Amino acid sequence: MSLEELAAAFEKAFERNDHQALSVALEAANSMFPAGSEMPLPDLARLAGLLIDAGSALRLPDPIKRGRALFQEEWERLKPVYGSAQLHYNVANAWQSLYDIERTRSGWRFNLEGTALSFEAKSAYWRSLAESPVGRVTPQLLTNLGNALDASGRVVDALYYYERALAASPQFGMANCNRGLALLYLNRVSGAYSVKLMYEMYRSFDAARKSQSSDAWAKETSEREAERIAQAIREHGHEPTEDHHSVEQSDQEERLHDPYWSWCLQHSLALSEHALYCRCIGARRDDLSILRPGTSLSGSKVPKMELLLNRMKSEYCLSRALLFQSVAPERKPRWDLTPFEGTFTDLMDDEEIGMETELLRTSFRLCFGILDRVARGVCEFLGLAREKETIYFHRFWHSPRKDGDKRWAALNEIEGPGLVALYGLARDLNERDGGEWSRLKRYRNLFEHELCLIRKDSKSRDLPPWLDDKDPPSIPYEQMKSDAADMLRFTRAAIFCFTFLVRSRSRGNIDGPGGPAITFPKKPIGKD
Predict the structure, then answer these.
(1) pTM assigned to the model
(2) Domain range holding 55?
(3) Which of 147, 213, 369, 408 is in the most buried spot, having the most CB atoms within 10 Å?
(4) Does a structural domain hold residue 252?
(5) Which residues lie closer than 8 Å to 345 by C-beta, 6 or more apart?
(6) By percentage, how much of the chain surpasses pLDDT 70?
C-alpha cells in the first residue's frame, strides 16, 4: 500500500468513525515505520501525523509515541520545510493525546503527578504559539492551547485563549464547543453560577452545533449540552432564546465603560468571575471572593484566607493602575507626573527613564510579591508552612530541606483543579522546568539585583564610547510593556486559582466545629 492509499484509507475510516478500518490502516502504517527515516520529508511528516491521529482515535499510546518520535528524531531535517511552530504543534497534539488516554486509566488521579503529561502538551502548544509568524496564529492552535490548559485545571487561562480563537474566527466550532465546556467547568470549580453564565454556555454550544467547522464529536457534544442547558434555563423560568442580557446589550454596555475599565476588560485584567465570560456593566468590579455575601461558617482558617485575598486584590489593583498609567495611550484620568519627575543625564544609552518607566517596573515587581503571598496562603491553608520559612511561589512545591519529599507527598494527596492549576503556573515560571514564562522571573531578578535598563529600541547599535562589552543588561521598552501585561494576567490567574482552591476545600467546613459562626457582608469599596 502506498502512502497516498494509506492516507485515503485513514480519511475514510475517520469520516465513518470505523475503528476496525482504522486498525487495519494503522497496521499498514506501522509496517512503514522502520523505513521512516528513508522517506521523503513530506511523506515522513505525513506518516508521523497519521500515527498520532490514529493512535488518538483508537486510544493506543504506542502509535502516538512513534509519531512523536518521528517528529523529534527528524526535527532538524523537517524544520526548514515546515517550521518549528508546526513541529511543536504536532508534538503537542501527541502529548495531549497521551494525556487523554492516561486520564481513562483505572486509578488515575487528578493531582500534581497525574497531570504531568498535560504540562508537556501545554508547553509544546505555547512554543508553537511563540514561534508562529505574526498574523499567522491559527484558531486551531489557540483552541488546542486552551484545551491543554483546561485539562490541567487552568480554566481562567483557557477561557482567555478560547476568546482569542473566537475573535479570529467567531464561528469556529471547536472553540465554541470547548468554551462551553470550560464554562461548565468554571461552574464546578468556582461553586457558583448565574443565569448569565448559563446563557453563555448555551450560546457557545448552540454556535458549535450549527457550525460547519465542527467535527462529529463537537456536534454531538454540543447538541447534548445545549439541550441540557436549555432545560436548566427553562427551570429558572426563562427561555434559552430570550437572553435577558443579550450579546447586543452586553456590547452596548461595554462601549459605555470608561477608558480604564474598557482597557481592563479588553486585556482580561478584572478580578471578577462575571468578567471571565462577559464584558457588560456587571463585569466592572473586582468582586472575587472566597465567601459569598451572607455566607456563614465556623472557625478561623477561611476568614484568614479571605483577609489574605483582600490584601492580594488591593496590591493587584495598584499594580494594574500603575500599568495602565504607564502603557495605555487612551488613559483617562491621566496622572500628572510632571511635578514628581527628576532630571537625568543623557548618556547616549537610549534608556527610557523617569516616572512612567518606574511605574512599569513597579507594576511588574508587585506581581511577584503577590505570587509569593499566594504560595504562603496555600501552605498555611493546607497546614504545610514551616516556622520562619521563606516561601516562594515558583519553588515551594519541592522544598530543598530534608523533609521536602513529605511536602510533595502531602500536596499529591490533594486532588482538585485549584492546586493543580497553581502548580502549572509555578512550573511556567521555573527555569529548571523550561517554563515559558521563566524569562519574566529572570527580569525580576535583574530588576532586583542588577543595573538593568529599559531601552527605547531593540535593534543592535554601537555602544556609547564610555561603555565596553560589559554593557548592562537591557529590555526593549515595547517588549517590557507587553511582558508586564502578561505578568499581570498571569498573577490574576493565580489569584483566581487560589480562591477556587480555598473555596472548594472549605465547603466541607474544614475548620471543624467549635468556632464562632460569622456572616460576611461585602465592602462596597470601588464598586458601582
Answers:
(1) 0.89
(2) 1-134
(3) 147
(4) no
(5) none
(6) 87
